[in-house]
Amino acid sequence: MLWIDVDFDAGTLLIRGGKSGRDDLLPLPLDLATELAARKAAQKANPNDRVFPTIMDGRTRLNDRFAAGLAERVNVLNADGSMRNRW
Q1: Which DSSP category does 3 fall into?
Q2: How far is Cα 7 from Cα 31, in angstroms, rounded to an integer?
Q3: Which pLDDT tens digit goes with each residue over 55-66?
Q4: Strand, coil or helix: what is 4?
Q5: If we measure between CA atoms, which residue out of 7, 14, 1, 4 comes closest to residue 47?
Q6: What pLDDT score was predicted for residue 80?
Q7: How buried is 76 (Cβ within 10 angstroms: 0-12 exposed, 13-18 middle, 19+ buried)?
Q8: Which residue has the higher pLDDT, 72 or 5?
Q9: pLDDT tens digits for 6-30?
Q10: Which residues, including other chains, have CB under 8 Å from residue 12's CB and lie 6 or more apart?
Q11: Burial profile 42-56: b = 16 or more Cβ within 10 angstroms, e = fewer
Q12: Rounded distance between C-alpha atoms, residue 46 and residue 37, angstroms
């Protein structure tokens, strides 16, 4: 998502190539608009810059789930009797 896709004046967010490859124009809730405006100012972003400059990988998503209490690590036994962590 690029900053050009965030229209603060109209209160909309353009999602390009979303479900089924189509573009979707979504309403931009006020609380999200406030957070994004602060992020844009902090980044000193240009219209063609990414809103989220880094791509989130699976490990980051998993760590976020741990932090939110949506996942937990548990010890399980492998078929050979050895222990391993699962989540």
Answers
A1: G
A2: 14
A3: 778 888 888 888
A4: helix
A5: 4
A6: 84
A7: exposed
A8: 5
A9: 999 999 999 998 778 899 999 999 9
A10: 25, 26, 27, 28
A11: eeebeeeeebeeeee
A12: 13
Residue linked to tokens 């036994």: 77
Give residue-wise pLDDT tens across range 35-53.
Answer: 999 999 999 999 999 998 8
**Tokens at 39, concatenated:** 């992020």
C-alpha to C-alpha distance for 15 and 7, rounded to whole angstroms: 12
Cα distances (angstroms) measured from residue 18 to each of 15, 29, 47, 79: 6, 19, 20, 42
Q: Which two tokens stand for residue 7?
A: 């229209």
Instruction: Locate all alpha helices (DSSP H) within 1-87, ordered by sequence.
Output: 30-43, 58-67
Query: 87 pLDDT exceeds 90?
Result: no
State both tokens at 62.
């998993």
